[in-house]
């Protein structure tokens, strides 16, 4: 069985396949389904969800990337890329492109006439070729799936691009595993031959090896950095997003980024993109948006905090949820209640957060009902969670001596709860 990432197996008839793909593309636009490779069909569906117009994709106008690309990590591997791919590009009738992790083309090199033709579809330095912008294409799809892939002729979602074929492979940071960008070869149908993908994968591996050597050399030259205390994540009572302190800096996070960090903190061995998508249960965004959010989170937190394949935290993270559990286990109920600033991410509807929120509520309630003194239990009864809890108020009543003046208020509150429930 041929690889699902190859456009066509060795010995196939490209002309016949091209005609079949054109018919499949028309069928998909009419029915939403087609007989094509699963990797292509799923990419077409993501393209539709992103609002890409197959007849006229809304490509952003190219931006000047000269200064940006000079500072980009992939600038260090361009000599390797040129030696392995660009040096023979004109003779092989293909273009070589290098894009960042958002699909923005940083370098497009090759025969000038071919570059001029590619410019007609805005395949130029500074343009963005992510799936969200232009639909299915090798560099954009390779980034979306973090996997080498070929796209042949009408496998492109955008009809203006279907005269071309391409093979692309992502390039990763050897230290963290995060995607830095993608290498792509674009040209005629011969670029979708199996050996073309082998060539691009080899070039990507050579680029990563070059980065690894550079990092080792940089490490020798730099003194070892010390980490400023343990990383800490706050999620209790944080309605709009938590706070994350790492390497001496506190970051105010969005709700989605807090959910992702909490999931990774609870799973130190790491989670795949698919597992994170299930944990967050975001049907609209699914895997491609999880990867985009993780990329944004990595940029926010800086280098050395998040790794990928699988996604994981590179340092242990202490959460205020963990601290709450430790206080309850020690029997430090007054401290635990003071620490319990509210439910876990109260506005989150992620399934794993909902489960953690309910588990925490029950753990606090159970510990206080069974073991806490009446003063602490009364403090809990006054909280939003305890206000309507008949069992908690009844336990407070039982814990007070008969002559206590507080009994009258508790009795009155219990009567109001009973009337409300009747």
TrEMBL record:
Which InterPro entries did the record assign? GAF, GAF-like_dom_sf, OmpR/PhoB-type_DNA-bd
What biological processes does GO assign it? phosphorelay signal transduction system; regulation of DNA-templated transcription
The answer to whether keyword DNA damage applies is no
Residues in domain OmpR/PhoB-type? 248-313
Provide the coiled-coil residue spans: none
Query: What SMART domains does the record point to?
Result: Trans_reg_C
Task: Provide any one GO MF term from the record.
Answer: DNA binding
Pfam annotation, one family: GAF
UniProt keywords, alphabetically: DNA-binding
Q: What is this protein called?
A: GAF domain-containing protein
Q: Which organism was this protein described from?
A: Cryptosporangium phraense
What taxonomic lineage is listed for the species of origin? Bacteria, Bacillati, Actinomycetota, Actinomycetes, Cryptosporangiales
